Amino acid sequence: MATVTHLDKSVFKFLKDIEKNNNRDWFAENKPTYVDAHEHFKALAETINAGMQKQDHIEKMKLYRIYRDVRFPKNKAPYKNSFSGGFSRATKALRGGYYFHLQPGGKSMVGGGFWQPEASDLQRVREEIACDVAPLRKILNSARFKKHFGKLEGQQLKTAPKGYPKDHPDIDLLRYKSFVVSHYFTDEEVLSPGFAEEVLKYFKATRPF
């Protein structure tokens, strides 16, 4: 199979169709279309994975299922209207990860960083910030970071975390519970031949962070 460098428009058509027909009967009738769309998505993901292996220490790639867990959410639609996946970094010493999400309507994006880290990791990050924030400030204020991501994102506490005063000089960063960056793509960009390379470019720009 030839290397897949971008998403075929038939994949977005399927995702648009399932958004309008999000039920098990329709999905069963259109299972072959889903299989074709998912295989194409997997081929694109493998192209990105090959590039990631060259620019970071990647432990594994994970592609998320289209089936939604409907046990608890109010939205009981059984299927997602997107394809997504992620990369985890190798060894316990390399934390953080990468995420990619493909969805029509300008909702396709890539992201990276530390999403809802466990308590011990979050404590370690905060301790490093309190000890020496300069390296992180330098990255966040760099022209390259602002060009690719704009600003730091993630859930934040409304007040200071336990053990830190409200007037701490770096309280703006200490209040974060997740430390993530993201970039969104237009549908045209996702369907263009250079898309895989663009994804890799943004993932590479995440590395210093």
Give the total of beta strands.
5
In DSSP terms (H or I, runs of 4 or more residues), the helix count works out at 9
**Shape, per Cα inertia axes:** globular
Level of helix content? 40-55%
Biggest beta sheet summary: 5 strands, antiparallel
Order of secondary-structure elements? HHHEEEEHHHHEHH
Q: Structural class given helices, strands, pairing?
A: alpha+beta
**Radius of gyration, Cα only, in angstroms?**
19 Å
| End-to-end separation | 35 Å
Can you characterise this structure?
- Helix content is 43%, strand content 16%.
- The chain is an alpha+beta fold and 209 residues long.
- Strands 1-2-3-4-5 form a five-stranded antiparallel beta sheet.
- A hairpin with a 5-residue loop joins strand 3 (97-102) and strand 4 (108-114).
- Helix 1 crosses helix 3 (31-55).
- The longest helix is centred in the N-terminal third of the chain and has 25 residues, at 31-55.
- It is globular.
- The two termini are 35 Å apart.
